[in-house]
Design brief:
Length: 295
């Protein structure tokens, strides 16, 4: 592997390491958003009141039962078509919060929906995708097969389930397993576009990258990168997770995956077969365990 590609792979792995850390803070999420934008050179500003970060902050500030409710994929049961919600399992009323913010920023109903749809999809996946990416890495780390083969084979082992509304009508049939999520991540991978921009003051035309979801540009409202804007930016975690996950593997990351022998955290190694722990603390604590003690 070329040295440049290796360093890029390691940086992506370290980004995923922090993203998958169960103890990540709201400040940690914000730092990751900025790191991703800088790494991929995307024309997108993060405001202080970024809506995705505000929702994460709201969830993380709750008591354990509410916080764990959203972290354990229950938010994935929230499905909405138009104005109809098919479940009442949204204790923090996140969908209402999203709609309120959208209505404050836009007057046109179409603009409101354009703001809500990608954000709704992103917030459904913000915790769910972390769990599936973690599971995917665990599967990949336990086999000598190519990572693509492992993920494709997993599709054969999973079943579909049906979601019905209160009248019993079928609303959606989804595969809750890793294969469906990987398929969604594959679709999200393409949602970073390269466009041509112009700078009239300097009379230049240049290439720029931006987030884009079905015609909704996440970036155009924030191209000036003004962190104090009264409007709420939206960092699309789903798109970022997709790019980091697949680019890490495409650059050869499969051979550098490690799950800590003590705490089980995902980590990335620079030298194959030389590391067993995610930190010096875990290595030291493991050495202190008595013979026969459960690990």
């Amino acid at each position: 592997m070329a040295n440049k590609d290796f360093e890029k792979m390691i940086k992506l792995g370290e980004w995923l390491e922090k993203y998958l850390d169960p103890d990540i803070t709201v400040w940690g999420y914000r730092k990751l958003a900025h790191e991703f934008i800088d790494f991929y050179n995307i024309n997108h500003g993060i405001t202080k009141n970024d809506i995705s970060l505000k929702i994460i902050e709201l969830v993380e500030s709750q008591e354990n039962d509410i916080r764990n409710f959203y972290k354990k994929n229950h938010i994935s049961t929230i499905r909405k078509q138009g104005r109809k919600i098919y479940t009442k399992e949204d204790p923090l009323k996140l969908m209402d919060i999203i709609e309120k913010i959208a209505s404050q920023q836009y007057n046109d109903e179409e603009d409101v929906e354009c703001f809500i749809n990608p954000l709704r999809r992103d917030m459904i996946s913000v915790y769910e995708y972390k769990e599936y990416i973690q599971h995917a890495f665990q599967l990949i780390s336990k086999t000598q097969e190519a990572w693509e083969t492992t993920l494709i084979k997993q599709n054969e082992k999973e079943t579909w389930r049906t979601i019905r509304d209160e009248s019993g009508e079928i609303v959606e049939e989804i595969n809750p397993g890793i294969s469906q999520t990987i398929f969604q991540l594959m679709n999200s991978y393409k949602e970073i576009h390269t466009i041509l921009e112009e700078n009239r003051a300097e009379q230049t035309i240049f290439l720029a990258k931006q987030f884009d979801f079905h015609g909704h540009c996440f970036s155009k409202e924030y191209v000036q990168g003004n962190p104090n804007s009264e409007e709420s930016s939206h960092f699309p975690w789903r798109i970022a997770a997709s790019r980091a996950f697949f680019d890490f593997l495409l650059l050869g990351g499969q051979e550098y995956i490690l799950f800590c022998k003590l705490c089980g955290k995902f980590t990335v190694i620079r030298r194959k077969g030389r590391k067993k722990f995610c930190s010096d603390i875990c290595r030291t604590n493991h050495g202190r365990e008595k013979p026969g003690q459960d690990k």
